[in-house]
From TrEMBL:
It comes from the Bacteria. This is Glycoside hydrolase family 42. Transmembrane segments: none annotated. GO terms for molecular function: hydrolase activity. SUPFAM superfamilies: (Trans)glycosidases (SSF51445). The keyword rRNA-binding does not apply. It comes from Flavivirga rizhaonensis. Keywords: Hydrolase.
Amino acid sequence: MLIKCLFSFLLITALIGCNKTLTVEEQALEKIEVLEALMSEAKSKSIDVTREETLLWFSKEFIKFADWDEAHKPEVEKLFGYYSFYEKDKAKYAEELPDFERGKVIEILDKGIAELNKVLDGTIKRRPVSKIDWGNVEVADNMLKNNGKPVFLFDYFSKTVGAPLTDKNVYNDHLGAIFHGGQRLYEVNMDRAVNPFILNEDRTFNEKIELITEIPDTNVGFLILWNMGMPQWIHDKEPEVTKGRSLFTGFDIDNPLMRDVWSDVMKKTGELTKGKKVTQLGYILSNEPHWFSEKGHWTQNYKEMNSISSYTVKKFQNWLADKYSNNIKKLNKNWESDFKEFNAVEIEIPMEKSLRGKPIWYDWCRFNMDRSTDWFTFLRDQLLETNPDADTNIKIMPKMFREDYRSHGIDLEALTDITTMIGNDGKAYGGRNLRATKPEKWEEKYAYWWDELSLPYDFLESVAPNKININSETHFLSASAWRDMNMSPDYVRSVFWLATLQGMDAGISWFWARDPDGSPEDRLEGELDFFDPALAGSYAGSANMQPQTVNEVAQVYMDMNSFSEEIVALREQRRPIRIFHSETSAINKKHYMTEQFDLYESLHFEGFPVGYATEKVIKKQDNSKWDAIVVFKTDYVTDSEFETLQSYLNNGGTVILDSKNSLSKNEYGESRGKSLSKGKGNLIVMDVANTVLEIQQKALEVVSDALPEVTLTESNGTAYKGCYWRVVKNEKGYLVNILNIGKNDAKLNLGLKNGKATTITNIMTGDVLNSEFELKSNGVLLLEIKE
């Protein structure tokens, strides 16, 4: 039978090659027949074909989508025109799209046919797929579980809005089946979102609450609070309600009426949804919150923090009175002002950027963070009154931490502390930012831009090591400033694997907007009437036009879930080196996070996850979980941060200080009169002239006993390392995961420190490797090493 299938495959391939009259669609349909025949052969031999079932589903769907696109070229052209980078050639893109999609279907079918043939002839040995039971997900300690094993979930956010959650063409094993109460809508009724529109002026609840309660209690899911709009009666009652609004929070979070309204909404929501499966991934307390308060920031064009309300001013005055212990003279000295009392203090918002590094800048930015933390604490507490076991997270943009900006009001550590889950919408670019006018710095070294994903994730896993990570809007497949129609499936596999290895438990991608007939969802048809600076152009060039991309998302999750226990073991590896992070320096210094990245990057490729330490981490966590803290270009710290580091040394810890400049100032730039002393610990003070590499080498030397017993050397034609790897010892030897995120293929040499001979097996395919082998750019390996 196998020989017959192979003969049929070769015959059809030959016919396709010779018969020039076959259309691209006909070629795809022929290949579908070949795959179906091979699947029948595999089933007869009890070989799992779950992967091929998904490949087949996407192939048939995209042939249908291509037919729709071909029949509706004017509509498709219009959609391309909404995205500035495609607008000029929108007619060309619309003309080429149908056969482009069919051609990509042929590519994935060719790849799938070749792999299944190797499975059938024994060349590849792969584990059966551990399928997700979407109705039987358990929220356990530090992981999600399914049938007793760790499970990683995937889906698409804002999923073909308007389609019923029970539609199997949209919610299935191929696209994911996470139910959600809060699609990203812009109509007044806010379909299935938690928002004030469910509340009448007399504080009774209206029929819109059924959009939350009618969600079937069958699948794992999440509820999201949508903070954009509010009923007219609130505007009429409170004239200041939109002062101090932000891009996706359309009201003043310090407004007492809004607090009363949201108290009612949260308590009722908690009461009605308590124990429902749609809350298993948490109540998402906000979509991408930030309150940028500096002049010239792009958010100013969307009315973000163009002014502040009297309520915010009063709250700031009270915060200052507490911060300065009611000493107005001290504030006036810092601010170079002459206020008579704290109730008279004024501040201009948005602020001039030139104020950064001055006390007035620090005070506002620190207050802005504290007030947003207070707001989210309030929302959480209202929910817990009626649903005390509720899980919560906040969809925080990791770039709020990774970038140098600090006027945004987001304290990532504090907001992660007050919620039970890590929330985010982590992002990576598979290519150059389309707004860039020249090659970007990362292109010299790497296959894709990963730092906004990796650095924040390592920080989050350091400050909240026992919390589940919910990325409720992954921007790995497209973003407002990046997309690639010809996206490499290897990139897709690498970036989702990297994110999962670094802690992501659920990745809900942006976005799926195809209705089952192939047409775009209702919001993208006709005249677009909604507020969002990005949504209108999101469809063009997205995953909705790329069968190779969405198929690979499903395929990599099938593979990761088949090896979920191994991946969890790898990601729970100890973090021996901790980089000290101070929001005090991040607020005051213009390039603190950029400087920090240089050190982080130097440690990223050494076979263990980089860790972070903050004042709270040192105080709250077992200090034996790491061997050394590196303080790098951290000039400004509060007295409390300084004393915490000193206490750590007094208790026997190790601190590597990059120079005497670090820790030398308080939050207001005043010189600190003392320096760290070693106490019972080990204090290493480097020379100010030392390079990042010298500091890295010193850190590795200090923790050498904690480094992996496995060694990996790399040659990739550049001066930089590109392979991110982790090791964990198990009963058979060592488990090693390697991801080549470098721009070139890498020649690797893998061995043991003790020099003993090894057997290296690729446990995803059964292949046995020599100690020297190559790994392609974007390649992923999961290996087992035995002596």
